[in-house]
Design a protein that fits this description.
Elements: E1 2-7, E2 20-21, E3 27-30, H1 35-46, E4 50-55, H2 63-73, E5 77-81, H3 88-101, E6 107-110, H4 112-116, H5 118-124, E7 130-132, H6 137-145, E8 156-160, E9 163-166, E10 189-194, E11 202-204, E12 208-211, E13 214-215, H7 226-229, E14 235-236, H8 239-251, E15 256-259, H9 268-280, E16 286-291, H10 301-306, E17 309-317, H11 321-326, H12 333-345, E18 350-357, H13 364-376, E19 381-386, E20 388-389, H14 394-401, H15 407-410, E21 415-416, H16 417-420, H17 427-448, H18 450-463, H19 466-474, H20 486-495, H21 500-506, H22 511-523
Parallel strand pairs: 1-4, 1-5, 3-10, 5-6, 6-7, 12-15, 15-16, 16-17, 17-18, 18-19
Antiparallel strand pairs: 2-3, 7-8, 8-9, 10-11, 13-14, 20-21
Helix pairs in contact: 1-6, 2-3, 8-9, 13-17, 17-18, 20-21
The structure holds cobalamin (B12).
Cobalamin (B12) binds near residues 40 and 81.
Length: about 525
């Protein structure tokens, strides 16, 4: 059978290098490849199906082109894959356009957001036939076998005789080794290695991709929905299977890989075997991981560095123990300090700290502590994002019980906590304190860790034009607090209490109105 899979994106995340061609002649895109659909494509092809992929990051395949291909190829199933609340409106636009042009197409949504909100999405998007929940590998094969009557397909939400049907959950698959290596070569795009999230920093010009070696994270941080997506479990691939994938990537010419595992730094034996395998097989690919600071594998940092681990990113969140406890991070400031120091001492080239600001109960003093703490740590890079609340997380449940969100009306909305929670600092105050904190952080870094700062600047200069570095570094000094990015304009509409109704409208309006609104945002 024939399947078309589309990775739907929020434009903020690929706008930076849109249309830029690299030495291969492919369009270059700053960001991560769509490993979700690449994983499904490999599974489909191995089972004898045909699969065509699109990534909305590619400016040469706009929605019109995707629809044209659907008309030509007449696929048996079209799957739209997207990660989060912020890409949901774009998934709706594409789905509505497909439905309008190809009325009998079989259309499915999948990904984390669709999984956690399957019933609501199906109700709100009757023009989408199926919502796929959880892992998609076996599900998509089962769905193709039962397209006319999917009542036995576990993990599927669909409609029968106008009524929404929520099939039972699929048992969490533990045998991840059974799945083939993702189909990374069919999509003609070159991904440029940059810092995750919205920091426009190019890290290398090597051929770059992502890999997933484990799924899930069992910790109960109040802002995260991964434990729900993975039923609180951590599932992993064997070291042998990871090495086999590395060997394929090496043959395909990749120079850099980032692991999209929710928590890589678990199970020392597996990490040791992965590192030894990399060294034994002469794999030269550089790699990066994310993990918790309380990880017991810190003694393995030197081995990881020897096996070409170049980046370790820690979820630090705050320099105030009070806030760490409030977020239920279950980590201490001492643990953070030890982990960052251990990683640097071991020779990990880039150690990154993810921080959040605008948490519940956080005051200016806590924010100050956070920036001071960040300055003291030998971190190479850092990001300070505003805390957001997503449906399904423990924080969402708390906000429901405090009457700050309404599960029925707000499930698809993107909220910065500070916009709805009176125990947070006010948005402009957070921005002001953040800008101030960043300024002092930069100076302290220069003063406390001058060599590290110099090395980092040299790295940036290798891959980035001077103008971009200037923009990046001068941002906190320019005092621009209200200049929203394109995506922020969209999300702002959802955040402010008084604009809440407008925001709700945004996801309910007709195609034309929604598209006009997005067009307006893009032109700003
Ligand atoms: C890597 C990553 C990113 C990358 C993006 C990578 C990319 N290609 O777009 C970056 C850093 C840019 C990013 C940005 C953001 N992210 Co992010 N990200 C992740 C992360 C860590 C891994 C995603 C991944 O690659 N998974 C691996 C692949 C194999 O899995 P998958 O895509 O889920 O696909 C599987 C199934 O879902 C299913 N499936 C998927 N699609 C389909 C379609 C069909 C038809 C079928 C049948 C099945 C199916 O099958 C696949 C194989 O099993 C996840 C955490 C997680 N574990 O999901 C967070 C996560 C998805 N991100 C999250 C968030 C909040 C964001 C941001 C909004 C952050 C921000 N405020 O800026 C942005 C939004 C980006 C966007 N465009 O939507 C949240 C989403 C929460 C929510 N409920 O909305 C998550 C869950 C993290 C968390 N802990 O809460 N992210």
């Amino acid at each position: 059978m024939r399947v078309i899979l589309v990775h739907v994106r929020d434009p903020q995340f690929y706008a930076l290098q849109q249309g830029h061609r690299g030495p291969t002649g492919n369009i270059q895109v700053m960001g991560f490849p769509p490993i979700g659909i690449m994983s499904l494509s490999a599974v489909l092809k191995r089972a004898g199906h045909e699969c065509i992929m699109f990534d909305q990051a590619n400016p040469e395949t706009p929605n019109e082109k995707i629809i044209e291909t659907i008309k030509e190829q007449k696929p048996d199933l079209i799957g739209l894959s997207f990660l989060s609340t912020t890409s949901y409106p774009y998934a709706k636009i594409l789905a509505r356009a497909i439905r309008a042009e190809v009325p009998d197409a079989k259309l499915a949504f999948g990904g984390v957001f669709a999984t956690l909100n399957a019933l609501q999405v199906k109700e709100q998007c009757p023009y989408v036939d199926f919502i796929a929940r959880g892992d998609g590998e076996q599900l998509i094969l089962d769905l193709l076998d039962n397209l006319q009557d999917p009542s036995g397909v576990q993990g599927l939400t669909w409609a029968k005789d106008g009524k929404v049907v929520h099939n039972p959950d699929r048992k969490l698959e533990r045998e991840l080794d059974q799945w083939p290596v993702p189909d990374r070569e069919s999509l003609k795009l070159d991904f440029v290695e940059s810092m995750p999230l919205d920091v426009p920093v190019v890290l290398s010009r090597e051929k770059f991709t992502t890999m997933q070696t484990s799924r899930g994270c069992p910790w109960p941080c109040i802002f995260c929905d991964i434990p729900i997506f993975n039923e609180g479990k951590w599932r992993y691939r064997s070291a042998e299977s990871v090495i086999e994938e590395f060997k394929v990537l090496q043959k395909q010419g990749y120079g850099s890989v980032y692991f999209v595992d929710d928590h890589f730094l678990l199970q020392p034996k597996r990490i040791e075997a992965i590192c030894e395998g990399i060294i034994r097989e002469g794999i030269t690919i550089k790699w990066g991981v994310e993990g918790r600071v309380d990880s017991v594998v810190q003694s393995l940092f030197p081995l990881m560095a020897k096996a070409n681990c170049r980046i370790v990113m820690f979820g630090i969140e705050s320099g105030s123990q009070k806030i760490l406890d409030r977020l239920r991070k279950q980590q201490t400031l001492e643990q953070i300090e030890t982990a960052v120091k251990n990683a640097k001492k071991a020779g990990i080239e880039i150690v990154h700290g993810f921080f959040v600001v605008g948490s519940p109960d956080e005051n200016e003093e806590d924010m100050k502590k956070t920036f001071k703490f960040a300055a003291r740590l030998p971190l190479d890079t850092f990001g300070f994002n505003r805390l957001c609340v997503y449906r399904g997380t423990p924080l969402w449940h708390e906000y429901m019980s405090r009457g700050l969100v309404n599960d029925t009306e707000d499930w698809y909305k993107y909220f910065k906590c500070s916009e709805i929670d009176p125990t947070c600092m006010k948005g402009p105050d957070i921005n002001r304190a953040r800008a101030k904190g960043l300024r002092s952080l930069f100076f302290r870094k220069l003063f406390l860790h001058p060599w590290q700062t110099f090395t980092l600047l040299r790295r940036f200069l290798r891959y980035m034009p001077m103008k971009d570095i200037y923009t990046l570094l001068s941002k906190p000094f320019r005092g621009k607090q209200s200049g929203a990015t394109r995506a922020e304009v969209l999300s702002r509409a959802v955040e402010h209490q008084d604009m809440k109704t407008n925001a709700a409208d945004l996801t309910k309006v007709s195609d034309e109105e929604l598209e006009a609104k997005l067009q307006q945002t893009a032109n700003k």
